[in-house]
Amino acid sequence: MEEEAKKECIRGQTDLGTLEARFLDLLRKHDSPTEKGQIYAATAFLFFRTDASEYLPEILEYSKKALAHPLPPVEATLTYRRCADALMFKYSGAKGEAFTAGRREMASFYLNAIKVAVDNMGTTPRNVKSYMLPPLQNELLIQRHGVSELLVGLYTRQPYATQELKRLATEIVKNDKAVDELVQDIEDHIAGKQGRDWFEPFRPPPQPARDPKVEEALRRLKTPDPAK
After folding, report:
1. Angle at Cα 50 formed by Cα 48 and Cα 51, nearest 5°?
2. How far is CA 16 from CA 2, 81, 82, 211, in A?
3. pTM of the model
4. What is the per-residue pLDDT across 50-59, written as a single tens digit (0 to 9) for each?
5. Residue 5: CB atoms within 10 Å
6. Sign of the alpha-carbon dihedral angle for 108, 117, 127, 166
7. Would you tell me which of 26, 47, 69, 183 could form a disulfide with 58, CB atoms 3.0–4.6 Å apart?
8. How far apart are alpha carbons 55 and 47 in whole angstroms?
9. Are the beta carbons of 141 and 116 closer than 8 angstroms?
10. pLDDT (tens digit, 9 = 90+) per residue, 132-145?
11. How far apart are CA 96 and CA 94, in angstroms?
12. Nearest residue to 104 (alpha-carbon basis) of 86, 87, 116
């Protein structure tokens, strides 16, 4: 669904408001919890892909609606991540309390993305070059690594707040090993040490699985009706 949304935005064939209305109209026919979640996630992506800095309220609104429904693990991690990525624009250039408050807000979304990845993975190998992980596991590992790097970037900016992050991560991720690894990465970067070598992806990440009925409905939105 996101690929279709991306194509529409890039081509500029349909204005954003019209496309939003068409996406939401799908809810009348596709009302299972999973379908609704995917439709809301795709609608959030429309606004994110168009201009994440201008449409932050819409991105957060539709993302939160999507996350209130069951989503495939990869799509859930991406949805949480986009919320925080969009907030980056809001807090760009912020200093003092405005920055630390924004950092906490972004961290909560990033940590929820990590939680989804950790909860849906088996044991994470330190070096996956010697492992042939299933595509889903590989993509979740990629997402976890990417989000962790973003958190490292946020919490290696002064004022340092490693204990704040540890508290938030403990509350949200609820996985001591994952929390300890994240905190260690931050402490190592602050100390000027080399970060952990997580992985080297061995295949392109797969696209999130979509409900076939939702995909077909979305495809029809952009296909002219020959009877008209």
Report:
1. 70
2. 14, 22, 18, 23
3. 0.77
4. 999 999 999 9
5. 23
6. positive
7. 47
8. 6
9. no
10. 567 778 888 889 99
11. 7
12. 87
Q: What are phi and psi of 26, to 5 degrees?
A: -65, -20
Q: Which two tokens stand for residue 70?
A: 């069951």
Average pLDDT over residues 195-221: 53
So where are the chain's domains? Answer: 1-72+209-223, 76-207
Give the phi and the psi of residue 90 in degrees, each rounded to 5: -65, -40
Q: How far apart are CA 70 and CA 106, in angstroms?
A: 22
Asked whether the CA dihedral 187, 193, 196, 201 is positive or negative, the reply is positive
Q: Does residue 26 contact residue 38 with C-beta atoms inside 8 Å?
A: no
**What are the tens digits of pLDDT across the range 149-174?**
999 999 999 999 999 999 999 999 99
